Amino acid sequence: MDAQKMKEFRTKMYTDLYTGVIPERFPVHDSMGTEYLIQYAGKDLLTTQYSLTADLLVEIYEKAREITRGDRLAGGFARNPIGMMFQQSLTNEMSKTGMIQHPERSFMDADEYDELIENPHEFILEKCAPRMNRGYAQGEVKRALNFAKYVLATMDFNKEFAVANATMIERYGYFTPPAGSTALQAVPFDFIADFHRGFSKIPLDMRRRPEKLLAAMEAVMPYLIWMGQNKVQSPLGSNMIMTHMGVFLNNKDFEKFYWPTFHKICHICAERGQAMQIFLEGDWTRFIDYLEDLPQGTRLYMEYGDPQQFKDRLGKKMVLGGFYPLTLLGTGTKQQCIDKAKEIIDIMAPGGNYFFCFDKSALNITDINPENYVAVMEYALENGKYENAGELVTTAKKEDSIKKYSHLYPEFKSKYIVSFDEFKEEYPPVDERIEPLMRAAYNKYTDLLNRFR
Fold it and tell me: How far apart are CA 364 and CA 57, in angstroms?
């Protein structure tokens, strides 16, 4: 099958999956980070991340095709160490091995909740950003210069990936969602815990100042809703949530602190026609009752848990994937790896609403045995076909599963987010003929800069 026909086949397969139709076969996802692909290609991880070009990335991707078999391009994204260099980032740091990690740190004091609640965006930019990035804590001029360098470095870095990814998609017909239809979606508890209070201090806040924490989570909702807005609404796109703290909470704290705003974020996205793709870090089996209340068609990617319970409880309503332990590919025999794939597929695939993937991505070259990886991927592809393709997974209507919450939150506003109509009061057009041209340019570059918030 040539690349164009393969892309059409894959697009139809994902369209069916994401719209509640049983596809010809279930999609199969590679689970390899760009870090792994660099090492597999025989490159030095540390230095290569500072010198990635589109040509080099294509070379790395082509080498990876010895072992990759999925319907979407493996890798395709990496953190940018050059941008981090200009930020002097403390939220992401590179080790001597070349791995970039998010260290445990706190960038907000316990007595600053009132400032966060008053205006989250302004507090984060004015107080937290310089604490998170030493390059922004050296006075206004140096902050502006370092931010400009970070933006330019990130744009260059992203361009190399965009060119390389487009090249591989054209050559091999990988599925890709429409441009502008995907976005990262932060949720309030994780947002505050991950980037402001830290993993170790947020439990203290739950005990000592619970009302402040709850108020802060409600206060950041308009900001996070704004951050997650997509330019293009498509059933093939999604807002992606990477959960962190949920499984570390007891049931009572989960219900009080974590779930309410998480639940509303998911339904607010669904109100505007956007599906949610959620990586459930850890074991969420004890939270299945809550997950059942998410909008129909939500895509859940599980790390651990009981596959049978998830299939029985959520299999008609949600699109499910995950559960396969990546570590087995490094420790098990080839037959053990195939047997595990069969076990999971036999539980999860019947009735549709399923995509095959591992519980996490390989990052280090030692994470997996490539021979085991290929054997499992080929088994999934060979055994993923449905005899009842085209049938509906359920007759339930998605709109009936969506709860209305967006009216509860005001439009996001900040003195640092200025509309063109406000701007032109300070800098009016010299002639009405150029007003639409100025507006288009202003909106273009403002929207571009907002990606780096």
Answer: 18
